Every structure is written in C-alpha cells, then in structure tokens.
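Troubleshooting: if your tokenizer reports a length mismatch, compare your output against this known-good record of 170 residues.
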Amino acid sequence: SIIGLIPGGELNRLFGAFKQKLFDLNIRQWLKNNYNKQITQGVEDYPEEFFYYNNGITAICTEYDIEKDSQGRNKFIHVKGLQIINGAQTVRSIWNAGEVDPKLNVLFRLIKVPSSYSGFTTNIIKYQNTQTPIKTYDFRSNDPIQIFLEQNLSEQNASNQGYMFHYARK
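Known-good structure output:
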C-alpha cells in the first residue's frame, strides 16, 4: 500500500482521461446531492485546508511501480488497473469545481490487490463503503452550548452543589 497526497489537478487529469471507468468497481458511483455541493465549495473556498476537511480517496490497483529521481526521492507512480473504490464524490466534486488551485491536495491511499475480483478485493470495497449516514443534527453535539453544558454539569462541578448529573454530548 501507498499512502500520500495527490494533487487535485492530477485527480482532474485522471477523471478527464478515464471518466466513469475510473469508478467501475465503486459500489456507490456518483451521487448528485447537497453533500457534493459542500465538497465543491470546500475545493473552491479552502484549497490549502481541503486535505484536512476531506476523508480522501481509496483506490486499488493490480500493479504499481515507483519511479525515483536522481536523489532517490519518489517522482512518479506508474499504476495498472487503477480503480477508485471510495472517493467518487470527492473526485467528481473537484472536477465540477473546474480549474483547481495547485495548493489543493487530497489524502490518497493506493492498495495493490492480487486481482480486481479476489475475495480480498471484495472485502476492501465492502468495508471502505460501509458507513453510517450523518444527519445534520449529529453536528449539534459539538456546538459551544453543548460543550459548556458538559463542562458545567460534570460530576465534579455539580457535586459541589449537591447534585449529580451525567451529561453526554450526542
């Protein structure tokens, strides 16, 4: 496996060259929804921070070779059988943003697999795409008022007043 950064412009180049074929083994494909608008907005508004705000991309391949420069640093990765199995929303949202700031980077995980249809590959695809949907109200657990309540209703603070509270931000 290789874990690193991939420039947003390189993702655009890949998608431009291969289009939907890049996602043949991706079980979700592209979903047109409001979350993708938010990803695109992040691409446009926060290119330098995008790496921190996005979950990144997981891809599989059947072969890769790392080409090094004269100082022994990684220069290029040559890949055969590339398939993005998780991150189609990210790739398409970057594509939809148009020209990408060169400072935009995305977390990229590349996993070499024995074949595109092995049991190991099937499990990677399955577990990379087993996610619990997040609802808007889930984000409320980190609101300042929730943090304040948690801190001020803690056992230590409340027990000084003669009360016992258990407060969980969820």
